[in-house]
Amino acid sequence: MNKLIKGFSILATFTLLLTHSPVSSSAAQTVQKETPLSTGVQYKQYKNTDTGVNTINHLTIDANDPTTKVQVGLPAVKNGKESTTAMAMRNSIEGNRVIGAINAGFFNMSEGYPLFLLAKDNVILNGGAISVGADQYMNVPTAFGMTRDGKGLIDYYQFDVTLSYKGKKYEMTGLNHSREKDNAVIYTPQFHSKTTKTNEYGFEIVVDTGKPITQNTFDQTLSGRVTKVTGYGSIGNTPIPPTGFVISLQGGEWHEKLSHIAVGDEISTQFAINDQWNDAEFILASGPYLVRDGKPYIMMSANSSRVKEIAPRTVVATNKDGSVVHFITVDGRQRHSKGMNMSQLANYLVKLGVDRAINLDGGGSTTMAIRTLGSYNIGLANKPSNAGNYQRLVSNILQAVSTAPLGSPKHIKHTSDTNYATLLAGASSGVKIQYIWDENNNPLPINASRVNLSSQNGTLNTSGLRFKTTTPGEDRIYINYDGKAVQSFPVNIVDAPERLAIIPAAKELSAGETIALSIDAKDGAGKPVVYDSSQLTWSVEGNIGTVTKDGKFTAKKAGASGKVTAKLGAKTVSASIIVKNHSLFKDIPADYHYYNEVESLTKQQVITGYLDDTFKPDNSLTRSHAAVIIARALKLDLSGGDLLQFEDVPASNPYYKEIAAMVRTGIMSGKDKTTFDPGGTLTRKQMAKVIAIAYNLEGVSSKNFIDVPKDDWSYDYVQALAANNVTTGYEGGIYKPSIPISRVHFSVFLYRAINL
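Structure (tokenized):
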């Protein structure tokens, strides 16, 4: 993905001007409706008043649930259109019941075909295009899909269409999309038209493979011989042979590269997707990106009318590991719901807690449908903005699916405070009811008065959904629904763990350092022993420090040694503690003001001292050393074959690879086009730019430094550091932007940025 990220560096720069942290962590939001649709899908409707009154519909989908799937839904006719509810109903069959759906990708409204990449099970249904211009929704290749391991993924993608001719490879613009200026497009029989639909401003090469091409797939190679070459400026709109493909080229550069291809020449084309998308269940390209890593991240120009427009919106989002997928719609252009612009939408999604989010087709297309409980019918959950709230016909949908048929009541889905581990006598635990299922995992109403616990042998004191152990032995908890035992699990009680250990078992600390100690309690079978916190006691042996009742030990006397002891039930265990009595470096004693920051970066091998065991904290940091330190901290790939054009950084420079990596990623640049000045010092404002870019810092602080005015090129970077508490400046409200940064101050700023 390096090529993609590098290509978007200019766009990402102005995007950061648009994104910002939301003003509040709690939305002015109330739940209007709440319904579990299946074991893994929850529906909620909110009334939100953050940016005017809005009605928001939200499906939370647990991709880890074995009977829950997220799928792409397609119309009955290829490249056709259907309403969201009609498509969901038609796709809902026994064993694959659609229980919720939203409209998905952008499409050509007159003809119905998708505009951007769409693939299912590695079959490319539509090659799509990337729009030109930062004001366009799809100006960078972004997509949502379900990966091969069933996780939701929102990220950039790299769809490579490559032409191979006489030992050379040429990277094409794309597959089966309209040919624009300077494009090189491959057209196969899977294009929505039987001809290329091109104009005369280009030339086209027809290749026959000798056998029918029934589908396009990732990792596919199509090879054949050229049967026809149309001249530049000829009529265009070449028929696509069912056994071949057409190479359509426009622009002088392509004419220079490939105009010498002749009839009879052998030529091939290959299609490939980058690894994280390979073998995905489906890929649906859309845009723009709205949220990335839990922060607003709008990949469009802040000046775009599309960004500023208050409109209905459709969104798909995920949590950090993709195990939870969110379908979200915001009604708009109506009395009950105003709608949102892109910035408001991104901030709302961040407050909602999603990690990544991407915009889908909105406006009059925005639609959410859900299954009515106890019925196979799928009806509208939102109100589309079209007159009469009618549904616009769309080309594809995203659908949440239950693979279990409707049945009779059978199971209770629950969790336990203890994960059914062995309990210490006297410990308390409980059960949390998540869903009450029928035999096919369809939900039934949950009523607390109808659910309780009971003990098989009477050795557990039960009250509602809580229980407390009394004497050692074995028992079983029954979960009862209307007085009938539906689910049960065993409970094993012991008077002491068989194995007890303090973690860590030994520790060397500096005076004043605090460490959180924990215990590992196991029974004879190696299962965890669960206990109440009041049953564990801590104590200290020796004049080494103090320990709290929850196991936080603080070292006091340097050079001392002793033990910390934990007692649980009838079992006691100790951990050895040594309080260090030496400095990190000769000039960084244990009481040095920035000792912890220097120690942390040293342990991570991000920074090092000198051969004489000094750190020289007050020495100025050189530009080359800054490049090395940041490259280590970010673990940048140093294997790139970059050729630096700086006269003062020859390949023999010991820091050549690190400097090249920093320049390649855009974190640092030269003094000018020909020099990097590796031995020059890094000023405090240059440092601000390096760290802000390296760690994607943004924001505006309430603190303004009088020596960094708004028209200074470094103002945004210094403000980003201040807003994230990476820097506080000096007394008197100054920053000292032009003085060289010292080694220790650079270490402190880097440590803070790493640990945000």
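The longest strand covers residues 428-438. The mean pLDDT is 90.
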